Amino acid sequence: MTDSIVTLSHIQKSFGSKKVLKDLNFTIAPGNIVGYIGPNGAGKSTTVKMMLGLLEPDDGTLELFGQPISPKDPSYKRRIGYVPESADVFDALTAREYLSLIGQLYGLSAADAEQKALALAELVNLRDAFDRRISSYSKGMRQLILIIASLLHNPDILFWDQPLNGLDANTVLVIEEVLQDLRDQGKTIFYSSHILDVVQKLSDRIIVLNAGTVVADGPFKAIAKEADTNLQQLFNDLTGFAEHGQKAQSFVDIVTEGESHEDA
Ligand SMILES: Nc1ncnc2c1ncn2[C@@H]1O[C@H](COP(=O)(O)OP(=O)(O)OP(=O)(O)O)[C@@H](O)[C@H]1O
């Protein structure tokens, strides 16, 4: 009998000659908000896709709900809510059509799916756009559709890959509270984000991925080595990044090279 809802042991994954995940190990207990952070290209989406059974590890084992993921028995997917990193939804459909379709794929009746989707859409100010094609939606509106789609079937665990992309500050506050309320009801939330002040505030536990392995794992207060630091500073330290000023200066020098405003 295991206490963990997710177990990753010695996971390795390469794409061609590029070793992305070298030896990834962690378990997640139910009823937690876990923030998964790391530099661009660190392997966060790759990890999430493996947890969903969309990608296979080259080595190591991955268990969900105490069982190894098996393509022969995809029933575990009904207990998962996934927000992919890229908001590519079916543009030709309206939100009503898309969410009804997704709800039905997860076993809801068309009427229940539509009713639930509409009620959720109203709460995030999407009612007026509900019968418009998604092709006319802004980035943030698309993101909200993905978030609603991941919740329609009341999953036990959320795998959200950069869910806050494109959301305005007010909507982020709503989503933060939604996640906290879901956690308080015993749901598990595993999400990646680059918005580190939100990650610091929201997460019960933060896992930092760098160069293919976990370099910090725990509640923010436990992984922060100094009392007056913040997650941004800790992230810079953990990923060995100290030259932002110099990089920015070189970038601007190249952009503005040879330019003289006196000529304008
Ligand atoms: N299908 C693929 N084929 C080849 N390389 C891939 C593939 N998927 C991912 N990669 C590579 O694996 C590495 C990790 O990618 P991944 O998308 O997991 O990073 P990430 O941590 O989610 O990054 P970001 O913060 O930029 O979204 C990158 O170098 C990426 O180019």
Automatic annotation (TrEMBL):
Pfam families: ABC_tran (PF00005). GO terms for molecular function: ATP binding; ATP hydrolysis activity. Residues 6-236 form the ABC transporter domain. It comes from the Bacteria. Keywords: ATP-binding, Nucleotide-binding. InterPro entries: AAA+_ATPase, ABC_transporter-like_ATP-bd, ABC_transporter-like_CS, P-loop_NTPase. The keyword Lipid metabolism does not apply. The keyword ATP-binding applies. PANTHER family: ABC TRANSPORTER, ATP-BINDING PROTEIN. This is ABC transporter. The lineage of its organism: Bacteria, Bacillati, Bacillota, Bacilli, Lactobacillales.
